[in-house]
Amino acid sequence: MSPVQIFGVKNSSATRAAERFFKERRVPIQMVDLKQKPMAPGEIRRFIERFTLAGLLDTEGKAYVDAGLKYLKVSDSGLLDKVAQTPSLLKLPLVRGNNRISIGHDEESWNAMLPTK
C-alpha cells in the first residue's frame, strides 16, 4: 500500500483531520510540514493544474487578509513566493494519494484515495 502524502501545517485543524482520517483507516501517510519544507515547484504545479492557483488560496483566511491580498494585484510568480513563505495562504491540507489530489477538508476525495480491496 503506497502512502498518502499530506501537505499542511501542524497547527491546522484541517491538516490534523486528514492525518486522523488516514491513520484511522490504517493508511500510511507521509506528512510534509510546509512550515519546515516548502513544496517542490513540480508538486505545487500539479495542484495548480487541477485547481488553479486562485482555487488553492484560502481567500477567507486570516493569512490572506493579513497579507493584504484582497486588495493587492500580485503576479502568479509573486503569489507563489508568498505561498512558499506563508503556507497558511493555501486551503490546507493538500493531499495526494492513489493518483488523486485534493485540497482542504474533503473526506469524499480522501475516501476515493483509499486502496480498493
Characterize the main sheet: 4 strands, mixed
CATH architecture: 3-Layer(aba) Sandwich
What proportion of the residues is helical, as a percent range?
40-55%
Tell me the structural class.
alpha+beta
The termini sit apart by 11 Å
Q: Radius of gyration, rounded?
A: 14 Å
Quick structural overview:
This protein is an alpha+beta fold and 117 residues long. It has helices at 13-24, 41-51, 53-56, 62-66, 76-85, 107-113; strands spanning 4-8, 29-33, 94-97, 100-103. The protein is elongated.
Structural description of this entry:
The chain has 117 residues and is an alpha+beta fold. The chain has a single domain, classed as 3-Layer(aba) Sandwich (Glutaredoxin), CATH 3.40.30.10. The chain is built from 6 helices and 4 strands. Strand 3 and strand 4 (100-103) form a beta hairpin. The longest helix has 12 residues, at 13-24. The model has no long low-confidence stretch (mean pLDDT 92).
Which features characterize this protein?
single chain, alpha+beta, Glutaredoxin, 4-stranded mixed β-sheet, 6 helices
Topology summary:
Layout: E1 4-8, H1 13-24, E2 29-33, H2 41-51, H3 53-56, H4 62-66, H5 76-85, E3 94-97, E4 100-103, H6 107-113
Parallel strand pairs: 1-2
Antiparallel strand pairs: 1-3, 3-4
